Amino acid sequence: MKIHDITTYLEAWAPLAYQESYDNAGLMVGDAAAEVSGILVALDITEAVVDEAIRKNCNLIVAHHPIVFRGLKKLNGRNYVERVVIKAIKNDVALYAAHTNLDNMAGGVNFKIAERLELQNVRILSPKAHLLTKLAVFTPIDDVQTVLNELYQAGAGHIGAYEHCSFRVGGTGTFKPLAGANPAIGKVGQDTEVEELRIEVVFPSYLEKVMVAALKKAHSYEMPAYDVYPLSNENQDVGAGAVGELPEELREADFLAYLKTRMNLSLIRHTALREQPVRRVAVCGGAGGFLLNDAIRAGADVFITADYKYHEFFDADSRIIIMDIGHYESEVFTKDLIQQYLLKKSDTFAVILSEIDTNPVLYYL
Q1: What are the structural domains of the chain?
Q2: What 3-state class would DSSP assign to 57?
């Protein structure tokens, strides 16, 4: 198994196309063609984490947070980022990050928080738009299932909790092959009519080239007729935050105690309690203050996130309870999420959780 095989597997789960513009997810250090000896999963990549990988014979670290956000102009070891990169290169340890692309996926970071809180009916809090494309292709009736199967295999036809979604409508296709053509149906120089079906499928926009290639591979026509339409629809599987419901409502004080236990917290910063039961819960790992209004619109009783500033707490305005649990604390279980996914691929190497506490924030209690 090569590093490239692992990164391809990770990016099928959390495509790099879904990372935010400021991010730097993906393989940052290392040779993608190198054989994998072991994988260490961490939240952050520090010098101590690289040392741990070396000790445990892991030549690939998969982390949530990228060690390199911006381009490095020098590698002199003058700060922790440069020291980590230098140490990784010297010891042939590859560094990979699945960051906002994993934040933005259904089943990703925020869904892991929801799982810890045993939320039900979990969905994306703020779905992203303009990430879907529709393919329409005109196909002889005998080719329909072959073409659809190839498109499904390439990633088309998935909508929410449904797969193999398509639409088809019948009609008559006409064409006249010219000299030099090699028609599958009809003859050169003769007008031809064929009973065809127009097939429509939706797919993630970043797969457009793959989808067109799959179509041409499966279609019997020398030059199949097809249309590609960008859609403005929201993609319910991609977006920020998550929202769901508790199995049963809790008093606010009881929910705070429950949250502290389930997320293994030392403290919770929160706005004033509203003397109302808690049932619907919105979450966002890391700095999620930008989703406050989405949480309110979703009817959430509480919004769990991190990195709130003093004046931002006022924005709750008695409409919701903001609960700031800390950046590290909100995302630390992402390690388990990544490990569980990678273990499905592991048959010749270990996938190990880092034992290093990388939280840079300490509390005096």
Answers
A1: 3-101+333-353 (3.40.1390.30), 109-126+239-325 (3.40.1390.30), 131-231 (3.30.70.120)
A2: coil
For the chain, 365 residues long, give each residue's pLDDT as a single digit of tens.
Answer: 999 999 999 999 999 999 999 999 999 999 999 999 999 999 999 999 999 999 999 999 999 999 998 878 889 999 999 999 999 999 999 999 999 999 999 999 999 999 999 999 999 999 999 999 999 999 999 999 999 999 999 999 999 889 999 999 999 999 999 998 888 888 999 999 999 999 999 999 999 999 999 999 999 998 899 999 999 999 999 999 999 999 999 999 999 999 999 999 999 999 999 999 999 999 999 999 999 999 999 999 999 999 999 999 999 999 999 999 999 999 999 999 999 999 998 878 899 999 999 999 999 88
Q: Which residues face 27 on adjacent strands?
A: 96
pTM attached to this predicted model: 0.92
Query: Which 3 state secondary structure label does DSSP give 210?
Result: helix
Q: Which of 132, 176, 109 is nearest to 17 (CA)?
A: 132
CA nearest to 265, candidates 365, 358, 356, 115: 365
Cα-Cα-Cα-Cα torsion 144, 147, 199, 155, nearest 10 degrees, comes to: 140
| DSSP letter assigned to residue 106 | T
Distance CA 310, CA 14 (A): 33
- Tokens standing for residue 245: 């419901």
| 331 is known to lie in a ligand binding site | yes
Is 103 assigned to a binding site?
A: yes
